[in-house]
Amino acid sequence: MDKFIPPKENYGKWGRNLERWYFDPVFLNSDQLNMSKPALFVGNHTLYGLLDVPLILEHLRLEHGVHLRSLGDRMHFNIPIWRDILTKGGMVLGTPENCHALMSSGQSILVFPGGAREVMRRKGESYQLIWKKRTGFARLAIEHGYDIIPFASLGADDCFDIVLDANDIQNNALAQKMISKLKLKEKLRGGDILPPIPSGVGYLPIPKPQRFYFSFGERISTAEVTSNEKDIWNLREQVAHSIEKQIFELKNYREADKDQNWSWLRKKLTKSFNK
Question: What's this model's pTM, rounded to 2 decimal places?
Fold first, then answer.
């Protein structure tokens, strides 16, 4: 039985306040969300996966009274203290068993099918969905009759320029020798969770003050969807297409908003050194 108790509102509040000030987030279509019953929120994971997620969670909690339970990659749970912070916030290890238990207890859930590989982005991968052949979220949603709410996040992938990525590291003989000597290849999942080396404000690893944009798509009902492999895949693709469409729309929205509402300083600090 899940004994999770949501933390008090002031838990981590100073950090979220700083994020809101720095990234000045915009939420689109949030007023159209119907949270009268639980749902599975599915979205695009962004570079490092740390900057935008707290803002999404806070917004849904404050505006809709919903405390999402996040499904997290196992690498989070291998880090002392960090795993305790995430667990206190409601994250659970992203396994089918845990997702099944959360759905059985009627909780709304947040999942990023791209997982750690989508977080550890490489050059030229901004805002791409890197889901491989994963269909687990769709399968479980159908099994439990859960509606899916696709959402999109824009801004975090632009907070850093990637100087070196996993491809560069894997193509470096010295780096490969070290990985082999330290027996890290399996732990790094063949390079899937090799973090890129970034450059942010002033070539420092400080995120550029991009403005963040979020949107929420229409609920996708699974009530009439069967559990055969074709329908599971079609549902997965329907969700992916909704997210990609929202990302495209957010990019257009940002272009107009940048001219009207971005300060001169924000525009200056968010310029890329390689453009």
Answer: 0.93
